[in-house]
Amino acid sequence: MTNKQRIAWCITGSGHYLKESIEIINSIENVDLFLSQAGEEVLKWYDYDLDKFKSKGIKIFKDVTASSAPVSLLYDGIYNLIVVSPATSNTVAQMAYGFSDNLVTNMFAQAGKCKIHSIIFACDTEPTVITQAPKKLVTLYPRGIELENYEKLKKFEFADVVNNIDSLHEALKKWI
Ligand SMILES: Cc1cc2nc3c(=O)[nH]c(=O)nc-3n(C[C@H](O)[C@H](O)[C@H](O)COP(=O)(O)O)c2cc1C
After folding, report:
1. Secondary structure of residue 111 in the 3-state scheme
2. Ligand 1 atom having least distance to the Cα of 89
3. Residue 102 belongs to what domain range?
4. Total number of domains in the chain
């Protein structure tokens, strides 16, 4: 990565592993945020203030255009890595099947088409997960379809799909 290249970090509407993802974002440089509409809402649910990111020089792109206009930044060589963390079941499903109708799924699709590497932290990857709801821990039981979509996404070129925080750190190592 050249000094000028940045990481495009996409946040989707997942409370699961949101805190861990934010901790990494706060510990690295050269990162900008791309939020799904649900990602923007969920950040508020968990009391994250977007102004705090902006004060550190992090640019924030919200999902406010039908054409996902910020993806054009991928054509200018500004970003050399896309991270989707945390990735909801919805986003994993859409990406696994090649849908690209919102900012985050478009970032992933266009990155692939530009041969830019992606790292995806999929959260619903085990038969049982304990997740952080805004006010308490909740046990969830991902369905077969969620586990199938995760497996399907793992087969994509130009993408590392991880399912725990240690693997996320490991995948990021060569980029930061
Ligand atoms: C407080 C809160 C926490 C949520 N956490 C999760 C989660 O951990 N995993 C998940 O798949 N969906 C979660 N959701 C539901 C997603 O936000 C919802 O499916 C949304 O449509 C996902 O859109 P996106 O994939 O475009 O971000 C949560 C919703 C709320 C309100």
Report:
1. helix
2. 11
3. 6-173
4. 1
Q: What is the pLDDT of residues 95-113, one digit of tens each?
A: 999 999 999 999 999 999 9
CA 19 to chain centre: 13
Ligand 1 centroid to Cα of residue 94, in Å, is: 13
Interval between CA 2 and ligand 1 midpoint (Å): 34
**Is the CA virtual torsion 105, 129, 42, 46 positive or negative?**
negative
pLDDT digits (tens, 9 = 90+) for 117-161: 999 999 889 999 998 888 899 999 999 999 999 999 999 999 999
Pocket lined around ligand 1, Cβ cut-off 6 Å? 12-16, 36, 38-39, 42, 45, 88-91, 102, 123-124, 131, 134
**pTM, rounded to two decimals:** 0.96
Q: Hey, which of 11, 20, 40, 88 would you mutate to test ligand 1's pocket, going by the most ligand atoms within 8 Å of its Cβ?
A: 88
Whether residue 1 is contained in a domain is answered as no
* Overall average pLDDT of the 3-31 stretch: 94
* Helices (H), ranges, the chain: 18-27, 37-45, 50-54, 89-96, 103-113, 144-153, 165-173
The tokens 């969920």 sit on which residue? 42
Q: Which residues contact 106 (CB under 8 A, 6 or more apart)?
A: 68, 71, 100
The CATH number linked to 57 is 3.40.50.1950
